[in-house]
Amino acid sequence: MTAAPLDLADIQGNILTAYGKQGFPKGCFLLLNIRDAAKGRALLATLLPRVTTALRWPSTKSIPTGALAVERPRVTLNIAFTFLGLLALRTPVRTLRGLPDEFIDGMAARASILGDDLSTGAMVTWDPIWRREDDPKTQVHVLVTLNAQMDPATGQPVADLGEEAAWIRSLCAASGDAVVVLSGHGADGAQDAQALSAILQAGPDGRFDPLPAEHFGFTDGIGDPVFVGQYPPDAEAVRVVGNGALTGDARWRPLAMGEFLLGYPDEAQEIAGAAMPLAFSRNGTFFAYRKLQENVVAFRTFIDASSARFGAVFGIPDPLEARETLLAKISGRWADGVPIALAPNFAAWQAFDHRISLTGDRPRALSDFSYHDDPAGLKCPVTAHMRRANPRDALDPLDGPGKPRAPSGSVLNNRRRILRRGLPYGAAAPGAAQEGEHGLIFMAVCASLFRQFEFTQQQWMNYGLDFYAGNDTCPLVGARAEGAKFVIAADPAAGHPPFILDRPPRFVETRGGAYFFTPSLTALRMLAMGVVDPT
After folding, report:
1. Given a cut of 90, is residue 276 above it in pLDDT?
2. For residue 43, how far is the Cα from the chain centroid?
3. Burial 489-507 (b: 16+ CB within 10 A, else e)
4. How do residues 155-179 score in pLDDT, each as one tens digit?
5. Which whole-number Å values give the CA distances from 335 to 47, 186, 329, 346, 433, in the listed order?
6. Residue 150: is its pLDDT beyond 80?
7. Are 75 and 149 in contact (CB under 8 A)?
8. Count of beta carbons in the 10 Å neighbourhood of residue 67
């Protein structure tokens, strides 16, 4: 599949690559409310020159720069809008009505689809900032994301992050309350910004390194989809393995550009419906912003109590091995990211790590696999988190007993992929007795919130029919009431029964969020100038 090169200068920089992987492990996110359209546009015009694009900067952590590179910033700045935010800027009605229904509705209105109304107290537990949509003066209109480099000597963000946030606050203050930085982050609602930070590890020299991990202890950020034009050809050929779409001859190809960017053909060779004019939508995208509270203490307690039983059933007497194996069965990967599909037991995991440490090709080794040889989930349970999120070839309709063929993906899977962006927030100290404020700011980037994010969330995370598991939810992030279970299949030749993880509590709960439109630089200029022409 070929396509014209992407206009990197027109695409916001947080779409193509995750900043956390590019040396920006710190963040500060601000939510704004626009009370005067003209002054809102003026503030946008002031921010516009600082917006970080997808133009590539030289870096050992970066993808190849290609013909044009820009200076690496110390702080990135990107902007996105809710539907109400576009309305507050007086965007023409003809443009607004072309936007997708789910974006117009907003995330809160679709709580029953996403499972956000299932937990005790439901959305009452959301941070106050997300529970004020009825008042036009407290509605979330604009998200400004600041991602920053870190001083490794202190583990703190570079000073530029605080300076940039202070500058935005000063612009809003100078508007005379025409644009307001909203407060209400956190359970107490006391913060006017959402702070983010990768989990840090102190080295022998006392310097800090960011870890690609989240608070439960799993390695995160592996297996993001690769689409046409996202990387230069040489980099694409390497990164697409395991992260693109499986073809009928067991090879990998990049997904269609239109699955993640508006204005381009998608996997169905269609261009997703969006706002007019086309120049307003092209090179933009949508994302679901989710503040996900991780109930770390509950998770650790439950795993500690369950791993001994699991070890007894599966004949694993070593407590550490039993615990690590149970975690791998739940996640679909071992703690360091090795797929359990490639290393189905503890010994195989150790051998796998040793082997790839010698080859040095760890990224490819962690991604190049399928579920073709494991239809019953004897290695990786069919309802493990990772297998639900990306079934790869497991939903191939032409596969099955008596139908030997090469691993192949399916349209069902290829049209449900999302780009994952975000960073952890808070801290979860080992041995903590009580829950605190800690979790993940998760952003699911896609061209269709309904077809990609909402489908995956509803049908694969919170329902199990596609995996022959009825109403069983994802064991890690599923929204569930009491009575749920997670089944770890056993080989009939192993001489022991399957293991049933009975009534796991809800480990991840939503604490707020919204649907956002991330415009191109062209569309940002249109909005700032007030010249969006829907004709």
Report:
1. no
2. 29
3. bbeeeeeeebbebeebebb
4. 999 999 999 999 999 999 999 999 9
5. 40, 29, 11, 11, 23
6. yes
7. yes
8. 7
pLDDT exceeds 70 at position 4: no
Give the closest residue to 78 by CA, choosing from 171, 8, 12: 12
**8 Å CB contact between 151 and 401:** no
Sequence length of the chain is: 535
Closest among 169, 193, 159 to 75, alpha carbons compared? 159
Q: What pLDDT sits at residue 63?
A: 52
Domain boundaries, the chain: 8-291+513-529, 293-417+464-511
Tell me the pLDDT tens digit for each residue of 55-98. Answer: 988 654 545 555 556 788 999 999 999 999 999 999 999 999 99
CA-to-CA distance for 425 and 513, rounded, in angstroms? 14
Cβ–Cβ < 8 Å for 289, 449: no
**Do 165 and 31 contact (CB within 8 A), yes or no?**
no
The yes-or-no verdict on residue 508 having pLDDT over 60 is: yes
- C-alpha–C-alpha distance, residues 454 and 112, integer Å: 11
pTM to 2 decimal places: 0.94
224-234 pLDDT, tens per residue?
Answer: 999 999 888 88
Question: What value, to the nearest 5°, has the Cα angle with vertex 18 and ends 15 and 21?
Answer: 160
Rounded Cα distance between 75 and 473, Å, is 38
Question: Could you tell me the two tokens for 196?
Answer: 């983010």
> For residues 65 and 58, is the Cβ–Cβ distance under 8 A?
yes
Pairing status of strand 142-148 against strand 75-81 = antiparallel
CA 451 – CA 454 distance, rounded (Å): 6
The CA distance from 508 to 118, in Å, is: 12
d(CA 137, CA 182): 9
Give which of 249, 193, 221 is closest to 408, Cα–Cα.
249
Q: Residue 277: is the preceding peptide bond cis (ω within 30°)?
A: yes
φ, ψ (nearest 5 deg) of residue 345: -145, 175
The CA–CA distances, whole Å, from 434 to 61, 149, 292, 373, 429 equal 37, 31, 17, 42, 10
The whole-number pLDDT of residue 285 equals 97
Q: Could you give the residue ranges of the DSSP H alpha helices within 207-293?
A: 233-239, 278-281
Residue 413's Cβ-side half-sphere holds a number of Cα atoms within 13 Å equal to 23
194-197/75-81 β-pairing: unpaired
For residues 52 and 11, the answer to whether their CB atoms sit within 8 Å is no
Report how far apart, in Å, the C-alpha atoms of 283 and of each of 264, 362, 496 are. Answer: 8, 32, 54
Residue 516: alpha-carbon gap to chain centroid = 14
Q: What's the Rg (C-alpha) of the chain?
A: 23
**Is 469 within 8 Å of 482 (Cβ atoms)?**
no
- With tokens 């959305």, the residue in question is 123
First to last CA, the chain: 32
**E strand map for 236-300:** 245-246, 252-253, 285-294
